Amino acid sequence: MISRRTLTTTLGAALAASATGSSLTAGAAPHGRRLLVRGGSVVTVDPVLGVLPRGDVLVDDGRIAAVGRDLDARDADVIDATDMIVMPGFVNTHHHLWSALGRNFVADGFPYFAAKRATSALYEPVDHYRSVLLGLAELANAGVTTVHNWCNNTRTPAHADAELRAHRDGLLRTRFSYGHVDQMPRDVPVDMTDVDRVRQQYFGGGTAFGGLVHLGVSLRGLSQSTEPAFVADMEAALGRGLPVAIHAGQAPPRTVDAADYERRGWLGPKTLLCHYVTALDSDIEVLVRTGTPLSWAPHSEFRLGTAGDPRATLLRMRAAGLPVSLSSDATSIAPSDMFETMRLAWTTGIPWQGTPTAALPEIGFRAVLEMATINGARALGLGDVTGSITVGKRADLVLVRTNDVNIAPGGLIETTLVQSATPANVDTVLVDGRVVKRGGRLVGYDVERIVRDARLSSLRIRTAAGGLLTPLA
């Protein structure tokens, strides 16, 4: 419950509609208010604060102002967190949001890459807007407060603008990584002209949309481009000082030679690699030495990876001290559910006898929580902004009910989040201090409209592709 001045009144205030027709409803609580999240079990993911079996979190103008027990905040609105776990919002470091509405295009004998090849050129700008907004609403519902929108089908400037409008309306903290056109010729470098236009138009002050969105570039890598084209892409991106994201490969041959990348000056905190199932121990050592972050998409690594058992790679990365973050890839490969992603990483993060992993340490509950929160924030250059419940950081918070039948009767707090919790248990979500989900219901989005619009785009694309699947009634 929310006492003192109810959030219902605040949530009734109209939000500004976009010029193209925002899908927002009256919902997200604005900045300038003090909120006290009171009486929950607080998993801070802060190395000093740790886990508070019972504690409060004070939010002032979108910032975490205090963490502790029995905080005095008589002028604050109170969110009662009794029988709930309070945790930092999840950070998903690799998500192709443009394809969210195509989550169910795949079928037996018609897998992910076939479905993408058959449909990616059919997306119009309005489809990108609808898809990204659908994906953002789904993420918010599941407790994800920060996402890396890995845009690997930016077909025209209008498509880029459509995705950015969705981010303006979508309320989540984001890296928008401008990318290539899907299926473009391998020997043609990416034209950075529109990246420069987007940077000037939207990111002149460094960030956009109230500081929630920052700009990056996603590149094809050698799995989708020739070496001259890839070198040109890297030089163009790094020359602009933008953070870079690269698919590092899930299948042979090995397309990323970390030592070569280091010699070229390509590695470091501003270069994010994803997958890298093919990494050798020597590659991992280079990533650790250069502080290069890695995104791991457990479902994708198992479903699409053909370079051997990905468990071995993950265990070797963790044992070497590489700060791995977690991600979902595309919704046609995995759900946008970081609880399930954590659970899969934990379940598969064990050594097994008779292999080189036998002597490696297993991955525990706290480790996967860190992978899903603070490691992700650091991977996106946001470690000082989000990823833990720490005084001075922005208030990206998630409240998880513990009296639901799939979680009760409770137990160890970190174990509960990894072993039992699902998006259905997420009661409340704050992004930058704004309430976007409350009482188990999204309050920052017009969900009915978002779903209706996504269905229209999905049906049109499937029809144009030749009826890949029987349309839903």
Summary keywords:
alpha/beta; Urease, subunit C, domain 1; TIM Barrel; 2 domains; nine-stranded mixed β-sheet; 15 helices; 19 strands; 21% strand; globular; disordered N terminus
- Sheet bearing the most strands, described? 10 strands, mixed
Strand content: 15-25%
CATH architecture of the largest domain: Alpha-Beta Barrel
Can you count the helices? 15
- The overall pLDDT, averaged over residues, is 91
The CATH topology of the largest domain is what?
TIM Barrel
Structural class: alpha/beta
Percent helix, as a range, is 25-40%
The top level CATH class name of the largest domain: Alpha Beta
The span between the termini is 38 Å
**Which overall shape is indicated by the principal axes computed on the Cα atoms?**
globular
CA radius of gyration is 22 Å
Extended strand count: 19
Uncertain ranges: 1-27
The fourth-level CATH homologous superfamily of the largest domain is: Metal-dependent hydrolases
What does it look like?
- This protein has 473 residues and is an alpha/beta fold.
- It has 2 domains: 2-89 and 388-442, Urease, subunit C, domain 1 (Roll); 91-379, Metal-dependent hydrolases (TIM Barrel, Alpha-Beta Barrel).
- The chain has 15 helices and 19 strands.
- Strands 1, 2, 3, 4, 5, 6, 16, 17, 18 and 19 form a 10-stranded mixed β-sheet that branches. Strands 7, 8, 9, 10, 11, 12, 13, 14 and 15 form a 9-stranded mixed β-sheet that branches.
- A hairpin with a 2-residue loop joins strand 18 (434-438) and strand 19 (441-442).
- Helix 3 crosses helix 15.
- Mean pLDDT is 91; it is low at 1-27.
